[in-house]
Amino acid sequence: RLRFDCFLLDFRFILMTRCVGMSSFLASQHLILVLSFERLYAAIFPAHFEKNSSKFLSVTIALSSLAGTFAFSMMQFSNNFRLFHGQAIAVALFNTNIPDNQHGCKVLMNMIAISNCISLIVLFIDFYLNFLRKPVGSASLAISYQFSENRRIVLILLPIELTQTLMGLFGTSLFAMFRKVNARPTPIEQQILLEISTIIPTCFPLMLTFWIRRSIARNANRTPNFDLVEDRFESLRKSWN
Protein backbone atom coordinates (compact mmCIF):
# COMPACT_ATOMS: atom_id res chain seq x y z
CA ARG A 1 0.00 0.00 0.00
CA LEU A 2 1.30 3.43 -0.95
CA ARG A 3 1.74 5.91 1.85
CA PHE A 4 1.85 9.66 1.36
CA ASP A 5 3.16 12.11 3.89
CA CYS A 6 0.72 14.80 4.95
CA PHE A 7 1.64 18.17 3.49
CA LEU A 8 1.45 20.85 6.18
CA LEU A 9 0.69 24.30 4.82
CA ASP A 10 1.62 27.29 6.94
CA PHE A 11 -1.36 29.64 7.24
CA ARG A 12 0.97 32.61 6.78
CA PHE A 13 1.52 31.62 3.15
CA ILE A 14 -2.25 31.79 2.54
CA LEU A 15 -2.48 35.19 4.18
CA MET A 16 0.59 36.35 2.30
CA THR A 17 -1.05 35.55 -1.06
CA ARG A 18 -4.04 37.67 -0.08
CA CYS A 19 -1.69 40.45 1.01
CA VAL A 20 0.07 40.29 -2.35
CA GLY A 21 -3.20 40.37 -4.30
CA MET A 22 -4.71 43.33 -2.45
CA SER A 23 -1.40 45.23 -2.46
CA SER A 24 -1.12 44.73 -6.22
CA PHE A 25 -4.64 46.09 -6.65
CA LEU A 26 -3.75 49.24 -4.71
CA ALA A 27 -0.46 49.60 -6.61
CA SER A 28 -2.31 49.46 -9.93
CA GLN A 29 -4.46 52.37 -8.80
CA HIS A 30 -1.36 54.47 -8.15
CA LEU A 31 0.02 53.47 -11.55
CA ILE A 32 -3.13 54.90 -13.15
CA LEU A 33 -2.59 58.04 -11.08
CA VAL A 34 0.96 58.37 -12.48
CA LEU A 35 -0.40 58.01 -16.03
CA SER A 36 -3.03 60.67 -15.31
CA PHE A 37 -0.35 63.10 -14.09
CA GLU A 38 1.67 62.39 -17.23
CA ARG A 39 -1.33 63.18 -19.45
CA LEU A 40 -2.01 66.33 -17.41
CA TYR A 41 1.55 67.53 -17.96
CA ALA A 42 1.30 66.71 -21.66
CA ALA A 43 -1.98 68.63 -21.95
CA ILE A 44 -0.72 71.78 -20.18
CA PHE A 45 2.75 71.87 -21.78
CA PRO A 46 2.40 69.85 -25.03
CA ALA A 47 5.40 71.38 -26.82
CA HIS A 48 7.74 70.93 -23.84
CA PHE A 49 6.50 67.38 -23.29
CA GLU A 50 7.04 66.49 -26.95
CA LYS A 51 10.66 67.74 -26.91
CA ASN A 52 11.76 66.61 -23.43
CA SER A 53 9.76 63.46 -22.71
CA SER A 54 11.82 60.52 -21.47
CA LYS A 55 10.66 56.91 -21.56
CA PHE A 56 13.29 55.92 -19.00
CA LEU A 57 12.04 58.56 -16.55
CA SER A 58 8.42 57.48 -17.05
CA VAL A 59 9.24 53.82 -16.46
CA THR A 60 11.34 54.69 -13.39
CA ILE A 61 8.57 56.77 -11.82
CA ALA A 62 5.97 54.08 -12.56
CA LEU A 63 8.10 51.30 -11.06
CA SER A 64 8.93 53.43 -8.01
CA SER A 65 5.24 54.12 -7.46
CA LEU A 66 4.42 50.42 -7.75
CA ALA A 67 7.22 49.38 -5.39
CA GLY A 68 6.41 52.06 -2.80
CA THR A 69 2.69 51.32 -2.77
CA PHE A 70 3.29 47.58 -2.66
CA ALA A 71 5.72 47.83 0.28
CA PHE A 72 3.49 50.23 2.24
CA SER A 73 0.37 48.10 1.68
CA MET A 74 2.17 44.91 2.67
CA MET A 75 3.41 46.61 5.83
CA GLN A 76 -0.14 47.63 6.81
CA PHE A 77 -1.72 44.30 5.90
CA SER A 78 0.88 42.26 7.78
CA ASN A 79 1.01 44.46 10.91
CA ASN A 80 4.44 45.95 10.13
CA PHE A 81 5.66 42.62 8.69
CA ARG A 82 5.01 40.75 11.96
CA LEU A 83 2.95 38.31 9.89
CA PHE A 84 6.16 36.83 8.50
CA HIS A 85 7.83 36.26 11.86
CA GLY A 86 8.26 32.76 13.19
CA GLN A 87 5.79 33.00 16.09
CA ALA A 88 3.20 35.32 14.53
CA ILE A 89 0.24 33.18 15.62
CA ALA A 90 -2.08 35.99 16.74
CA VAL A 91 -1.98 38.00 13.52
CA ALA A 92 -5.11 37.86 11.34
CA LEU A 93 -5.36 39.71 8.06
CA PHE A 94 -7.58 42.78 8.24
CA ASN A 95 -9.18 41.70 11.53
CA THR A 96 -9.84 44.92 13.43
CA ASN A 97 -10.71 43.02 16.60
CA ILE A 98 -6.96 42.70 17.15
CA PRO A 99 -5.72 46.02 18.58
CA ASP A 100 -2.44 45.85 16.67
CA ASN A 101 -4.30 45.81 13.35
CA GLN A 102 -6.68 48.70 13.98
CA HIS A 103 -4.17 51.47 13.26
CA GLY A 104 -2.97 49.81 10.06
CA CYS A 105 -6.53 49.41 8.78
CA LYS A 106 -7.33 53.07 9.43
CA VAL A 107 -4.15 54.22 7.69
CA LEU A 108 -4.87 51.99 4.70
CA MET A 109 -8.49 53.15 4.39
CA ASN A 110 -7.37 56.78 4.51
CA MET A 111 -4.76 56.11 1.83
CA ILE A 112 -7.35 54.49 -0.44
CA ALA A 113 -9.82 57.37 0.03
CA ILE A 114 -7.19 60.06 -0.63
CA SER A 115 -5.77 58.33 -3.70
CA ASN A 116 -9.26 57.79 -5.11
CA CYS A 117 -10.11 61.47 -4.72
CA ILE A 118 -6.83 62.63 -6.28
CA SER A 119 -7.20 60.18 -9.18
CA LEU A 120 -10.72 61.36 -9.99
CA ILE A 121 -9.79 65.05 -9.77
CA VAL A 122 -6.73 64.66 -12.01
CA LEU A 123 -8.59 62.49 -14.50
CA PHE A 124 -11.49 64.93 -14.85
CA ILE A 125 -9.01 67.79 -15.31
CA ASP A 126 -7.40 65.72 -18.08
CA PHE A 127 -10.82 65.18 -19.62
CA TYR A 128 -11.57 68.90 -19.56
CA LEU A 129 -8.22 69.94 -21.04
CA ASN A 130 -8.31 67.38 -23.84
CA PHE A 131 -12.00 67.35 -24.77
CA LEU A 132 -13.87 70.42 -23.49
CA ARG A 133 -11.24 73.11 -23.91
CA LYS A 134 -11.19 74.91 -27.24
CA PRO A 135 -8.24 73.79 -29.39
CA VAL A 136 -5.58 76.25 -30.44
CA GLY A 137 -5.98 77.13 -34.10
CA SER A 138 -2.28 77.61 -34.85
CA ALA A 139 -1.07 74.41 -33.22
CA SER A 140 1.80 72.59 -34.88
CA LEU A 141 1.66 69.04 -36.14
CA ALA A 142 3.51 67.70 -33.07
CA ILE A 143 1.14 69.44 -30.65
CA SER A 144 -1.92 68.24 -32.58
CA TYR A 145 -0.60 64.70 -32.48
CA GLN A 146 0.08 65.04 -28.75
CA PHE A 147 -3.50 66.14 -28.07
CA SER A 148 -4.90 63.25 -30.10
CA GLU A 149 -2.68 60.86 -28.15
CA ASN A 150 -3.89 62.39 -24.88
CA ARG A 151 -7.51 61.90 -25.90
CA ARG A 152 -6.91 58.28 -26.78
CA ILE A 153 -5.23 57.49 -23.45
CA VAL A 154 -7.75 59.44 -21.35
CA LEU A 155 -10.63 57.57 -23.02
CA ILE A 156 -8.97 54.30 -21.94
CA LEU A 157 -8.15 55.46 -18.39
CA LEU A 158 -11.50 57.08 -17.59
CA PRO A 159 -13.70 53.93 -17.43
CA ILE A 160 -10.92 52.00 -15.66
CA GLU A 161 -10.56 54.71 -13.02
CA LEU A 162 -14.32 55.04 -12.52
CA THR A 163 -14.67 51.27 -12.12
CA GLN A 164 -11.80 51.11 -9.67
CA THR A 165 -13.18 54.02 -7.65
CA LEU A 166 -16.61 52.42 -7.43
CA MET A 167 -15.04 49.17 -6.24
CA GLY A 168 -13.06 51.03 -3.58
CA LEU A 169 -16.15 52.90 -2.40
CA PHE A 170 -18.11 49.64 -2.32
CA GLY A 171 -15.53 47.90 -0.13
CA THR A 172 -14.98 50.77 2.30
CA SER A 173 -18.71 51.48 2.62
CA LEU A 174 -19.41 47.82 3.27
CA PHE A 175 -16.79 47.69 6.02
CA ALA A 176 -18.08 50.92 7.60
CA MET A 177 -21.72 49.76 7.60
CA PHE A 178 -20.77 46.36 8.96
CA ARG A 179 -18.81 47.90 11.83
CA LYS A 180 -21.81 50.07 12.70
CA VAL A 181 -24.19 47.11 12.76
CA ASN A 182 -21.86 44.59 14.39
CA ALA A 183 -19.12 46.13 16.52
CA ARG A 184 -17.65 42.77 17.62
CA PRO A 185 -17.82 40.38 14.65
CA THR A 186 -16.67 36.80 14.92
CA PRO A 187 -13.70 35.63 12.79
CA ILE A 188 -16.07 33.76 10.45
CA GLU A 189 -18.26 36.84 9.94
CA GLN A 190 -15.17 38.95 9.36
CA GLN A 191 -13.85 36.53 6.74
CA ILE A 192 -17.21 36.31 4.94
CA LEU A 193 -17.36 40.10 4.80
CA LEU A 194 -13.82 40.22 3.44
CA GLU A 195 -14.63 37.71 0.71
CA ILE A 196 -17.78 39.60 -0.33
CA SER A 197 -16.04 42.97 -0.42
CA THR A 198 -13.06 41.68 -2.43
CA ILE A 199 -14.87 39.55 -5.00
CA ILE A 200 -15.29 42.51 -7.38
CA PRO A 201 -11.62 43.64 -7.13
CA THR A 202 -10.65 40.03 -7.76
CA CYS A 203 -12.55 40.12 -11.07
CA PHE A 204 -11.14 43.54 -11.99
CA PRO A 205 -8.20 42.16 -14.07
CA LEU A 206 -10.71 40.27 -16.22
CA MET A 207 -12.77 43.42 -16.75
CA LEU A 208 -9.61 45.38 -17.52
CA THR A 209 -8.48 42.79 -20.07
CA PHE A 210 -11.90 42.87 -21.73
CA TRP A 211 -11.83 46.66 -21.97
CA ILE A 212 -8.31 46.75 -23.45
CA ARG A 213 -9.15 44.08 -26.03
CA ARG A 214 -12.33 45.97 -26.94
CA SER A 215 -10.37 49.20 -27.38
CA ILE A 216 -7.74 47.49 -29.55
CA ALA A 217 -10.38 45.86 -31.75
CA ARG A 218 -12.25 49.14 -32.16
CA ASN A 219 -9.08 51.02 -33.12
CA ALA A 220 -8.04 48.28 -35.55
CA ASN A 221 -11.36 48.45 -37.42
CA ARG A 222 -11.43 52.24 -37.55
CA THR A 223 -10.94 53.81 -40.98
CA PRO A 224 -8.37 56.60 -41.16
CA ASN A 225 -9.64 60.16 -41.34
CA PHE A 226 -7.93 61.63 -44.40
CA ASP A 227 -9.30 65.11 -43.73
CA LEU A 228 -7.54 65.14 -40.37
CA VAL A 229 -4.30 64.02 -42.03
CA GLU A 230 -4.55 66.84 -44.56
CA ASP A 231 -5.20 69.37 -41.80
CA ARG A 232 -2.09 68.19 -39.95
CA PHE A 233 0.10 68.50 -43.03
CA GLU A 234 -1.36 71.93 -43.71
CA SER A 235 -0.52 72.95 -40.14
CA LEU A 236 3.01 71.58 -40.60
CA ARG A 237 3.42 73.55 -43.84
CA LYS A 238 2.34 76.78 -42.14
CA SER A 239 4.76 76.22 -39.27
CA TRP A 240 7.63 75.71 -41.74
CA ASN A 241 6.77 78.90 -43.54
Written description of the protein model:
- This is G protein-coupled receptor.
- The chain has 241 residues and is an all-alpha fold.
- It has one domain (11-240).
- The protein has seven helices and no strands.
- It has helices spanning 11-44, 46-52, 55-77, 99-132, 141-181, 187-220, 226-240.
- The longest helix has 41 residues, at 141-181.
- It starts with 10 loop residues before the first helix and ends with a helix.
- The model is unreliable at 1-7 (pLDDT under 50).
Unreliable segments of 5+ consecutive residues: 1-7
> What portion of residues belong to β-strands?
under 5%
- Rg computed from alpha carbons, rounded to a whole number of angstroms: 23 Å
Average pLDDT score = 71
Number of domains: 1
Order of helices and strands: HHHHHHH
Shape: elongated
Describe the structure concisely for a colleague.
The protein is an all-alpha fold. The protein is built from seven helices and no strands.
Task: Compile the SSE list and pairings.
Layout: H1 11-44, H2 46-52, H3 55-77, H4 99-132, H5 141-181, H6 187-220, H7 226-240
